[in-house]
Amino acid sequence: MRAAGITALGEPVEILEVDEPAPPGADEVLIDVAAAGVGNWDELVRIGSWQIGGPAPMALGTEAAGTVAAVGSGVTDLREGDEVITHPLPLRRHGTWAERLLAPAGAVAARPPEVSWEAGAAFPIPALTASQAIDEVLGIERGDWFVVNGAGGVTGGLLVQLAAARGARVIATASTKKAKRIRDHGASEVLDHHDEWPALVREITGGGALKAVNAARGQAATTLTAVADGGCLATITGDPPPEVRGVAVSDVYVRPDGRQLSARAELLARGVLSVPIASIHPLEQTAQALREAVAGADGAIVLSLRT
Amino acid sequence: MLAVRLHDDGLKVEEVETPSPDPGEVLVRVRAAAITRDELEWPVDRLPAIPSYELSGVVVGSGEEVYALTPFDRDGVAAEYAVVPADVLAPKPLKLSHIEAAALPMGGLTAWQALFVHGRLTRGERVMVTGASGGVGHIAVQLARHAGAAVVESGPVDLVFDTRGGDVPVGERVVTIAEEIPGATYFIVEPDHEQLLELRALVDAGELRAEVDSVFPLTEVGAAFERVAGRGKRGKVVLEVGTE
Fold first, then answer.
1. pLDDT on residue B32
2. Touching check for B165 and chain A: CB below 8 Å?
3. Phi, psi of A216 (to 5 degrees)
4. Cβ contact (<8 Å) for B147 and A260?
5. Which of A40, A100, A131, B88 is deepest in the core (most CB within 10 A)?
6. Contact residues on chain B for A139, CB-CB shorter than 8 A
7. Cβ contacts of A264 on chain B, cutoff 8 Å
8. Is residue B216 part of a domain?
9. Helical H runs in A123-188?
10. Nearest-CA residue of chain A relative to B146?
11. Is B145 near chain A, with CB under 8 Å?
């Protein structure tokens, strides 16, 4: 089958012809891929610093939307023809940038009918990351002051929306041109990330926010200075600073979870959450799509395999 | 601890050993437990059995306030303490008392799963709920409206959610919890931590409420089950389990 991937770790992404997936094992499903997300985390897989499957040559890609083509003998809640989305780790060797994908059934969620293939494909990793930071690590509750540093990206936007849906009072940072969108997401304050924003947060909240998440690369330590003594900081960029002033610091790595994804997808269907799409590419342009994702786009980048 | 147990010859309130959790489970100090019509017919193959599968309470050790729908294939929660799989628990809605929180899980999860998981309800669709004032129905109506669907009382409709049985109206898609009928999707509600989180958020935002019909002390469980089998109730019947 046709795929986009690498012949060896560190090699550029190219179009490959790889073997068809095996028939699904007991707890697996085979998916005809309709669309697949492209994120800067895929660059980590390409260079070998996020090991999730393989060995190369292999298709890359860590999230997808598609139609179930076959299910394993132990799968009871999915059927052939179901439309689904998934962050399918650990990979059954090949990633999602391929015509067909073998996925662990427990990592698969239904695609709500309102959600486009493209939005569904770009949703799993940002949504699971936001969900795990907010609901599991930080335990956001109604009325909490909550800071999102780096709210301009796809995950940052979902962090703001989900925290607002949980009833938090959200202070977000972003560039000024994204401020309106983030206010529409439910943030009560949007601060320019070029300013001395932690001081503003401490002023607004009277000493710092109880809870904060850092979604801007290399800025977890800065975000920490906006957190109140004894508060909680989660960072999703792999840069946890040492704990000070009794602030608990957590390093959040996304975990596949079909049930969690399913519940959050209902929020996407209802418009409580949203995924802006920056561009859609055919599989042949995957290398370019990945370069765009690494450079930073205003929204999600998606491969469409529907022709 | 004090527990309600179903025996061959009926319900008894008795002193039993406090259970201890295995890995993956936690011990919950039960503060309220809700009961369901017909549920005493479910555990007949594992008597004596503790009834009630919806709780609100406090995790022993951590002090976290939680609520849950618990699995149907093991002892329920009508007792001072219950061992519960950790992955079915969710934080209790802040706005609700333990009594109100215990009244939500089964109706809330059943309605959620019927509309969104099995019924694939979308914004702008027309949905009919039979038994719309019942324990599940009144929650389904609120959830469907919140999802942007039109709740109607006559056809044509995109989705019928039948909570009552008998003559089921015609719809493009039919989901039922009453009985298996041809052409309809019949399902049994499953515990789900993630969906409880969403229900909690809706409740705390003031967008969802679950009715409590009546409250009985644990020791009056017989009267509680008479009430739940009777006519004219509105909402759940809840057992209150100690308040100290």
1. 98
2. no
3. -115, 125
4. no
5. A131
6. 91
7. 194
8. yes
9. 124-131, 154-165, 179-184
10. A270
11. no
Whether the per-residue pLDDT at B210 is higher than 70: the answer is yes
Q: Cβ–Cβ of B197/A270 closer than 8 Å? A: no
Asked if A165 has any chain B CB less than 8 Å from its own CB, the reply is: yes
Q: What is the pLDDT of residue A306?
A: 85
What average pLDDT score do residues B75-98 get?
96
A283 in reach of chain B (CB within 8 A): no
| B220 against B170, higher pLDDT | B220
| B171-182 pLDDT per residue, tens | 889 999 998 888
- Given a cut of 60, is residue B244 above it in pLDDT? no
pTM to 2 decimals?
0.86
Of A112, A259, A269, the CB nearest to B192: A259
Nearest CA in chain B to A163: B201
- CB within 8 Å: A270 and B117: no
The nearest alpha carbon in chain B to A135 belongs to B197
ipTM here:
0.74
User: In sequence order, which ranges of chain A are alpha helices (DSSP H)?
Assistant: 40-47, 117-122, 124-131, 154-165, 179-184, 197-205, 220-224, 258-270, 286-295
Nearest CA in chain A to B116: A266
Does residue B172 sit at the A interface (CB-CB below 8 Å)?
no
| Residue B58, domain extent | 2-103+211-240
Non-local (6+) Cβ contacts of A117 within 8 A are: A34, A35, A65, A66, A111, A304, A306
Contact status of A192 with chain B (Cβ, < 8 Å) = no
How do B90-91 and B81-85 pair as beta strands? unpaired
**How confident is the model at residue A307, as a pLDDT?**
66
Q: Taking the CB of residue A274, how many other CB atoms lie within 10 A of it?
A: 17
CATH of the domain at B27: 3.90.180.10
Question: For tokens 């499903």, what's the residue?
Answer: A29
Are B67 and B98 within one domain? yes
| CB contact B156 to A (< 8 Å) | no
Of the pLDDT bands very low, low, confident and very high (cuts 50, 70, 90), residue B242 is confident
Give me the residues of A, 35-54, that contact B with CB < 8 A.
none
* pLDDT higher than 60, residue A109: yes
pLDDT in tens, A232-246: 999 999 999 999 999
Average pLDDT (A130-153) is 94
Give the residues across from A67 on adjacent strands. A32, A83
- Contact across the interface for B120 and A110, Cβ inside 8 Å: yes
Q: Which of B185, B156, B128, B147 is nearest to A112 (CA)?
A: B147
CA A132/CA B232 separation, integer angstroms:
43
> Are B218 and B99 in a shared domain?
yes
For the beta carbon of residue A56, count every other beta carbon within 10 angstroms: 18
Same domain flag for B113 and B98 = no
Please report the domains of chain A, with CATH numbers, ordered by start residue.
Answer: 2-123+275-304 (3.90.180.10), 134-251 (3.40.50.720)
Q: Is B198 in CB contact (< 8 Å) with chain A?
A: yes
For tokens 């719309």, name the residue: B132
Q: Cβ contacts (< 8 Å) between A271 and chain B: which residues?
A: 123, 148
Percent of chain B topping pLDDT 90 = 81
